[in-house]
Amino acid sequence: MGRSPCCSKEGLNRGAWTASEDKILTDYIKEHGEGSWRNLPKRAGLKRCGKSCRLRWLNYLRPDIKRGNISADEEDLIIRLHQLLGNRWSLIAGRLPGRTDNEIKNYWNTHLSKRVDDCRRKSAAGASKNSKSKQATGGNGNGTFSANVVRTKATRCSKIFINPDLCDMNREAVPPASSKINGLLPAVMSESDTEGTDPISLDFTLDFNVGEFCLSDLLSSDFCDVDELSYGNAFGSSPDQPLGLSFSDEMLKCGFESPVVGSIS
DNA sequence: AACTAGCTCAACCGCCTGCTC
DNA sequence: AGAGCAGGCGGTTGAGCTAGT
Q1: Which of A90, A180, A198, A208 is deepest in the core (most CB within 10 A)?
Q2: Are residues A57 and A84 in the same domain?
Q3: What's the CA gap between A5 and A2, in Å, rounded?
Q4: Which A residues 84-103 have CB within 7 Å of strand C?
C-alpha cells in the first residue's frame, strides 16, 4: 500500500525561506505553540510542507538558538560526544544548549571529521608499532570511531520509575564543580548538579538504552587523544578521566542504570 | 574580470518509531 | 493486533559564497 506522503507537494514552496514566511511561522508558533506540524501550514497560511515548517522552526527560528562561532569548548565536547554516541546528532545537540542537531551535523562534516580523521591517522601511524596490542582493544579499522560508540536507541521515554534511595545515593556523589566549564554541561550532569543542591539530572541516562552500554568499557576505552587536536582540555580532565567527564566512585560502583530502575514503555 | 574548485549550511528526503484508534 | 498518522532522525543535496588561478 505504501505510506502516504506527509503532505501534497503540489503547489508548495520549496527551497530557501523568505523573511515573510519566517515571520508568519514565528508569529503562528508564538500564538499557538509548537506541534500539529501537518496542519500548521494550512492554518498559518503557509505554502510549505509541515515537515519543512518544523525544520525551519527547530533549526533556525527558535528564539533560544545560538548561531555560529562554535567555541573550542563546544568543539571538544562534540568530538567527545561523537566518539561516545556516534552520529546521534540529536543526542549530541541535546548536550550543547542552543545548538541544533543539523548545525552540529554540518559542523562535524565540514570541520571536525577531517581533523579527527587526521588525528586518527596520526595515532594509527604512531600506534602501528604496537598494533598487535591495540587490536585487542577493539578498533574496527574502518577509519571511524565506532569502536566505543554507545548504541543508543532513540526511544521515547514516557514512563519511568525513579528509585529515591538510589537518587539520594547519587546526590551524595556530586562531581566536582570543575566539571562544568563555560556553561557547557558534561553529558552526565545537569547544571544543578554542580551546585549539589538538586536531585541529579537523569536525562542523560534516559537517552540511552543503558542495557547495551557498559560503562566500564567506556572508561577503559582507548580514545583518540583529543588534546592532539590542540584545543586544550576543555573540562580540565586528567588522564584518569577519559572523555573529560567526572564519575564518582559511587557512580562507577552502582553503574549508570541504577538511578533509573523503571522501564521504557 | 572571468572562471573554477572547494566550502558551508539550509533544506529536503526517506526511513523509523511511538501513539492512537 | 495492526493499520495509519505524526513527529523525529540521520544522510544527502544543491545553492550561494569565497578563495585561488
Answers
A1: A208
A2: no
A3: 9
A4: 87-91, 101-102
CATH of the domain at A85: 1.10.10.60
Is residue A92 situated within a structural domain? yes
From the alpha carbon of A35, which nucleotide's C1' atom is closest?
Answer: C7
- The boundaries of the domain holding residue A77 are 72-148
Whether A52 and A113 share a structural domain: no
What's the CA–C1' distance between A103 and C17, in Å?
18
User: How many CB atoms neighbour CB A126 within 10 A?
Assistant: 11
Q: Report the distance separating Cα A18 and Cα A25, nearest Å.
A: 11
Q: Is the CB of A15 under 7 A from strand C?
A: yes
Say if CB A250 and CB A165 are below 8 A apart.
no
Write down which residue in A148, A181, A201 finishes a domain. Answer: A148
The number of folded domains in chain A is 3
Give the span between the Cα atoms of A39 and A115, in whole angstroms: 43
Which bases of strand B have any atom within 7 Å of the beta carbon of a protein residue? 7-19
Specify which residue's alpha carbon is closest to the C1' of nucleotide C4.
A3
Assigned domain for A126 exists: yes
Which among A148, A176, A191 is the end of a domain? Answer: A148
Tens place of pLDDT for every residue, chain A, 265 residues?
333 445 556 678 888 898 889 999 989 888 888 878 888 888 888 888 888 998 899 888 888 888 777 888 888 888 888 888 888 888 888 888 889 889 998 888 888 877 777 776 677 666 665 544 434 333 333 333 444 444 433 333 333 333 444 434 444 333 333 333 333 444 433 333 333 333 333 344 334 443 334 433 443 444 444 444 433 333 333 333 333 343 333 333 333 333 333 333 3
Which of the 148-187 residues on chain A come under 7 Å of nucleic strand C at their beta carbon? Answer: 154
Label residue A236 left, alpha or beta by phi (over 0 means left) and psi (-120 to 50 means alpha).
Answer: left
